[in-house]
Amino acid sequence: MKRQPGIETAEKLSALQRALNIKTKKMKELAAQINMYQAKVNIFIFRQTNLSMTSKKLKKKYKKSKESITNRKKDKLLQKKTNKYLCKFDLIHFLFQMLSFFHNIKQKPYKFIACP
Fold it and tell me: What is the rounded CA–CA span in Å between residue 18 and residue 12?
């Protein structure tokens, strides 16, 4: 004769199945919440990466413009110094031409640069 479970065992089994179903539902809810939070984290990571890249681009642009301004200032200063030396050179060359003229030494004519 086969042994069949008693009423108590059947009741325990059905109670355990109900508890298992409840825990399974709860576990599925928690898994859904984890997925939702993971999606939010991914969005935040994407935004942070995007902001970081934008920040780097702006920093590069700022440095480039700052260097450009600095280079322009240096160029203007260098141009002023160069013009100053050219004016001195023109004066020396003019005096040399005058001396050459008085000593009858032939020289190529020199075009003068207007001094500021």
Answer: 10
Q: What is the pLDDT of residues 58-85, one digit of tens each?
A: 999 999 888 888 888 887 877 777 766 6
Query: 112 CB contacts (<8 Å, ≥6 apart)?
Result: 90, 94
Cα 97 to Cα 102: distance, rounded to the nearest angstrom: 9
pTM of the prediction?
0.48
Q: Could you list the beta-strand ranges (E) of the chain.
A: none
Place of tokens 């069949």: 4
**If you count DSSP H runs as helices and E runs as strands, how many of each does the chain have, helices first?**
1, 0
pLDDT digits (tens, 9 = 90+) for 88-98: 666 677 777 66
CB distance 90 to 113 below 8 Å = yes
**Backbone torsions φ then ψ of 93, nearest 5 degrees:** -65, -40
